[in-house]
């Protein structure tokens, strides 16, 4: 296990991304609203996903592949699940970090990602960037946005997959994009106004940061911005430049754009990353020999291709733009604070107990072994990264769910343990006895303004079952 301790010099040592499974075809938007929706599909978070759950998925994938104890955790998003509560603490609990590990949010704009990067780099910490991008029906934000998350870990330079060679920042106050507290969608000034301000800054940032790195040009260029004009013009100003592969993804934009390059960049290559948001931030990185063997196992492009379509009406319902009649069942009660605190390890990191006498695994944890009867002789074990198989399942079309039917499955976990879980992102035809499943951190429901987070089962493709099973 790598321990990322304190220190003044650090480098990027690992990364992982998470893209939700659902895709909204832009043609469906145009067909419904009678306007051009464009081509292709955008990535859509499910009804039970938010920036916190997606952040857990990305951070969990990183730490399964590269076990480490980061010096701190910084979570950046423009769509926090809570406005007056630390969302990073839920991510912290779900990936089972020590209580002494500092965790904090940086929210408000896509530039928060750079703030998280800077402080995590100084503390050899973990950066988690995640966003759910929303826009009014038919808007450019709805059409060109994308939901996703990325985790970036800083650590010892000798473990680097990419070294930070130079970084510079410029700040500019301009009314290009805004969203007032409580509003579900933001506003944007005419894009040409922001473009005319950002382009000179981008040119200056590129020139001065490359000069600081002792370079005339970079092998790869990533340009991200909430301004659509910048994203359109970037390849003309910087030939070969790419952006976030899923469209503008808020605070996750910079990380997803960088990750997509790291997925295929060769060792010894330079990457110039430019972010134009309320100013301009520039980074120059140089990849190392370790990158070839420490890339994430599923590239961003593969995750993007692994999607299923969601009807436009369903998407609008998930985002609250279409107020449909709810299921005629009582809504759940608000989760209470005391029992949630008492069962934190079980609720957030899916930690059970294993009997020291007979090895029986209990889910949830207990004090007395159900098999041999021994008392208070247990080891705690998190099964959040474990895989298993469906023992039996049921399709419930009457239970309360924002996206019926609700599917429950009894899961037998590899190595021991059995528990009944709701199945995420699945249709009844996806389930069968023996189907391999993993776990996904989700929001079971929200009541009284409180999110009830827990784990759901998710069906794994055979090749993913082998890969994820190897990480347990």
Features:
five-stranded mixed beta sheet, five-stranded mixed beta barrel, Peroxisomal Thiolase, Chain A, domain 1, acyltransferase activity, alpha/beta, ChsH2_C, 13 helices, 2 domains, 472 residues, 24 strands, NA-bd_OB-fold, OB fold (Dihydrolipoamide Acetyltransferase, E2P)
CATH architecture of the largest domain: 3-Layer(aba) Sandwich
> What count of domains describes the coordinates?
2
Question: Taking Cα atoms only, what radius of gyration do you get, to the nearest Å?
Answer: 22 Å
CATH class of the largest domain reads Alpha Beta
Major sheet details: 5 strands, mixed
Number of E-state strands: 24
- Straight-line N-to-C gap: 14 Å
- What is the third-level CATH name, the topology of the largest domain? Peroxisomal Thiolase, Chain A, domain 1
Q: How does the overall form come out from the CA principal axes?
A: globular
Low-confidence stretches: 1-7
Question: Structural class of the secondary elements?
Answer: alpha/beta
Spatially, the strands of the biggest sheet line up as 2-9-8-6-7
Percent of sequence in beta strands = 25-35%
- Could you report the average pLDDT, rounded to the nearest whole number? 91
Q: At the fourth CATH level, what is the homologous superfamily of the largest domain?
A: Thiolase/Chalcone synthase
Helix content: 25-40%
Number of helices: 13
